[in-house]
Design goal:
α2 runs antiparallel to α7. Strands 1, 2, 3, 4, 5, 6, 7, 8, 9, 10 and 11 form an 11-stranded mixed β-sheet that branches. The protein contains 12 helices and 11 strands. The radius of gyration is 29 Å and the shape is elongated. The protein starts with a helix and ends with a helix. The chain is of the alpha+beta class. The model has no long low-confidence stretch (mean pLDDT 87). The longest helix is centred in the last third of the chain and has 44 residues.
Length: 376
C-alpha cells in the first residue's frame, strides 16, 4: 500500500507539488505566529540581559524590569556600596514617554544611565559623547525617518541623535538611551515637569560583583543592608519579565495559534477529499481486488502524513522569508521561527492534524460502490 501511495504521488507530481505548497503555506502561518510570540518574550529577556551587571537591584516587591514601577531612594546607593563583594553600583531609570513627530505618536522608553547599562552595539553613528546626545533604537528611527544627526524633540526639549542601535525594543516599545545629566536638564526645561521631587530619578541599580564573591551571597547582603530593595541575578529578572509577557499576551497568542491550527486541519481535509474524490476509479478497482475500507483509509492517512512531512521544509522556508520581510519593514518586531522547539512542536501537531484531516474522506471511501466506481 505504501508503494501504491508513492506511485500515485509521483504519477500526479503537479498535484502533489501544489498540495505540498498549500500545506506548507498553512503550516508557515503557525510558525510565524509561534515565532512572533517567542520573539516578544525574547525581546523582554534581552532588554534585561543587555544591561550588564552581575546583579540588578529593584524596589522591594518589584520583580520585573519592564511594566513595573520601581522607585529607589538615592541614599540606597550609599548603603549598597559598603556591602562586601560590591565592586561598583550603576543607577538606571526607565521613563515612559509619548514621542510625536509629524503628527505620528509612538510610545518610547527613555533608558537613562550613567556609567553602565547603556546601548549595546551602535550600528550607525557613535555612542553618546556630548551633552544632549541620545542613541535610539532602529525601530524608532525607521518609524519616524530619523537619521544620525537629526534632532529628537520630546516635550519641546531637543536632543540630538548621535547613534542608532539595534535590538533595543520590548513590548512594542523602542528605547532611547539618555545620560543622567541630560535627564535633569530635560526635567527642568521640558513642559512636562511639575514638582521635580515627584519624578523618578533612580529605578534600578546595576551591581558589579568583585571577583571571588558569590553573587547570591552579595544579593543577600544587599537586601540585609537595605530592606527597601531587592536584588536579583539578571537571568532571574529576565525570566520574570518573560513570564509577565506570557501572562499579558499569552491568551491572545494562544487563540491565534488555535485558529491557525484549525486552518491547517481544514486545508488538509479539503486537499485530501479532493485527492480521494479524484481517485474514485482507482479505489473502486482496489475494492474489487479485495482491499478493505480500513486499508484504503489507512492509505489516505499515510499519503496525508507524507505530504505534510514533505511540506514542512517548505513551511519553514516560507516562515523564514515572512519573518525576514516583517523584521525588515518593521524592526520593532522580532520573529523567532528557527528555534528547534518551535519547529518540533509545530511539526508534531501538524502531523497529527494531517492524520485527522485524512479521515474526512473516510465516509466517501466507505460508501464507494466497487462495481459502480470501476465503470467511472
Amino acid at each position: 500500500m505504501l508503494r501504491l501511495v508513492l506511485r500515485e504521488m509521483g504519477h500526479h507530481a503537479e498535484r502533489t507539488a501544489f498540495a505540498m505548497l498549500a500545506i506548507g503555506a498553512a503550516v508557515s502561518l503557525v510558525l510565524v505566529i509561534e515565532g512572533f510570540q517567542q520573539g516578544l518574550l525574547e525581546q523582554m529577556r534581552r532588554v534585561v540581559l543587555a544591561r550588564g551587571g552581575d546583579l540588578i537591584v529593584t524596589q522591594a516587591g518589584v520583580e520585573n524590569f519592564l511594566a513595573s514601577r520601581s522607585v529607589i531612594p538615592q541614599l540606597s546607593r550609599s548603603r549598597i556600596e559598603p556591602v562586601p563583594g560590591v565592586a561598583a553600583v550603576h543607577p538606571l531609570v526607565l521613563v515612559p514617554i509619548i514621542y510625536e513627530r509629524h503628527g505620528r505618536k509612538s510610545p518610547i522608553f527613555l533608558l537613562v544611565y550613567d556609567t553602565a547599562g547603556g546601548p549595546g552595539t551602535v550600528v550607525q553613528g557613535m555612542p553618546i559623547s556630548r551633552p544632549r546626545e541620545v542613541v535610539v533604537d532602529e525601530a524608532l528611527a525607521r518609524m519616524h525617518g530619523l537619521k544620525v544627526g537629526d534632532p529628537l524633540v520630546i516635550s519641546d526639549f531637543e536632543f540630538r541623535i548621535s547613534g542608532i542601535t539595534r535590538g533595543a525594543a520590548a513590548m512594542f516599545t523602542p528605547f532611547v538611551f539618555v545620560k543622567y545629566d541630560d535627564l535633569i536638564d530635560f526635567y527642568f526645561e521640558s513642559d512636562m515637569v511639575g514638582d521635580i521631587m515627584t519624578l523618578p530619578l533612580v529605578a534600578f541599580f546595576l551591581v558589579d560583583v568583585a571577583p571571588g564573591f558569590d553573587p547570591d551571597e552579595v544579593a543577600a547582603g544587599i537586601e540585609q543592608a537595605d530592606p527597601a530593595i531587592d536584588a536579583f541575578r539578571p537571568e532571574a529578572l529576565a525570566r520574570r519579565d518573560a513570564t509577565l509577557g506570557e501572562t499579558l499576551f499569552g491568551p491572545v497568542m494562544q487563540a491565534l495559534l488555535a485558529v491557525s491550527y484549525v486552518i491547517c486541519l481544514l486545508l488538509i481535509g479539503i486537499i485530501m477529499f479532493a485527492v480521494i474524490h479524484g481517485r474514485a476509479r482507482t479505489l473502486g478497482v482496489l475494492k474489487v481486488l479485495g482491499f478493505a475500507n480500513r486499508t484504503l483509509v489507512l492509505a489516505a492517512v499515510t499519503e496525508s502524513v507524507l505530504l505534510t512531512v514533505l511540506a514542512l521544509p517548505v513551511a519553514w522556508g516560507l516562515a523564514w522569508l515572512t519573518a525576514a520581510v516583517i523584521e525588515s519593514i518593521a524592526p520593532l518586531y522580532l520573529l523567532v521561527v528557527s528555534e528547534p522547539g518551535i519547529l518540533v512542536r509545530a511539526g508534531a501537531v501538524t502531523l497529527v492534524l494531517a492524520a485527522f484531516g485524512a479521515l474526512g474522506p473516510a465516509r466517501f471511501i466507505g460508501r464507494l460502490e466497487p462495481a459502480l466506481a470501476a465503470r467511472v
